Amino acid sequence: MEENTRQMTPEEEKFLQPRKPVRSFLKKFHKRKTAVVSFWFIVILALVAVFGPIVIHYDPNAADYTALLQGPSARHIWGTDEFGRDVFARLVAGTRLSLSVALGSVAIGAALGIILGLLAGFYGGVIDAIVMRGSDILFAFPDILLAIAIVAILGPGVINVVIAVAVFTVPSFARIIRSATLEVKEAPYVEVARSIGCTGRRILWRHVFPGTVQSMIVNFTMRIGTAILASSSLSFLGFGANVTEPDWGTMLSQGRNYLNTAPHMVFCPGALIFFTVLAFNLLGDGLRDTLDPKIQ
Q1: Mean of the per-residue pLDDT values for the chain?
Q2: How far is CA 211 from CA 77, 120, 177, 192, in A?
Q3: Cα 260 to Cα 176: distance, rounded to the nearest angstrom
Q4: Residue 227 dihedral angles phi and psi, to the nearest 5°
Q5: By CB count within 10 A, which of 46, 116, 235, 255 is most buried?
Q6: Lowest mean pLDDT: which of 20-29, 44-53, 64-73, 271-280?
Q7: CA gap 37, 210 in Å, rounded
């Protein structure tokens, strides 16, 4: 009997090689050029938020009445405002505040939404009906109008903005995690866990929850951009940070009064808000395309 000496094809060898999920993820993600650029933009923005106030030599709240409404120059690269304060220094200081509000609100909303979505999808029944009908009620209101209503009740302030943004973030996570839970709980490994006597709580958190992480990461990234836009809008309308604080929305609101004489006061914070929100949205799109196994 002749021995079978057929060599494997490159496709078969590739299939038999051990999988390296991190390397595979990085290879796929690197192909999304816009997502990569957005990622590095966000990294630089985070570094600015952490180290920027330490490095800049201008006090963001120090007034200089000899340099009122000056345009960009070598001394003030992004100009000054109506009190002579350096616009660049205020934007750098405002980066920490704006990102903190966005991350805090999305983290709170995500935590509540994930718990509700898991419970609704895993147990179903009355819990599912209550969670989904509550989400439908919140979805009936535009995000910014719901946030304005909440802040109008609670009063202006950064903490209340975080609460308002977190509230309209909850139903988004609840619905997405519920959908992912319904799919994962029917997987064969979950059925095996049930057959060997694992408790419902253990199955939910040890087997079902890890299967929803991909959906959670994508939605979390994209909701940060929405949170930045919402918090800046609330500050622009006077519901957010105090007028003395270097918040992006507040700076945009103050600059509109000098649009004809000092357009840099509007252009600089507006451009920063635009590119930051765009970066988070593009990064979320790139993560979705990379993590979704259905997309080749």
Answers
A1: 83
A2: 48, 15, 10, 15
A3: 45
A4: -65, -40
A5: 235
A6: 20-29
A7: 28
